[in-house]
């Protein structure tokens, strides 16, 4: 799969802060700029579990 349904982005939110998530196609992740977390997609399904997220750098947030 590997493709994010952009309609889904309108309804999903960061489980930590309830903020907007941004799709990062290159890494197949959903990014929360507020918490600097990247949530993985597995078979096109977002894994919105804080313990599964990775911390991202300021440079990754800006790009």
Automatic annotation (TrEMBL):
InterPro entries recorded for this chain?
A: Trm112-like
Known Gene3D superfamilies for this protein? 2.20.25.10
Q: Which Pfam families match?
A: Trm112p
- Any single GO CC term annotated in Swiss-Prot or TrEMBL for this entry: cytosol
Source organism's superkingdom?
Answer: Bacteria
In the record, the note on similarity to other proteins reads: Belongs to the UPF0434 family.
- Output this protein's name: UPF0434 protein MHIR_DE00482
Source species? Candidatus Doolittlea endobia
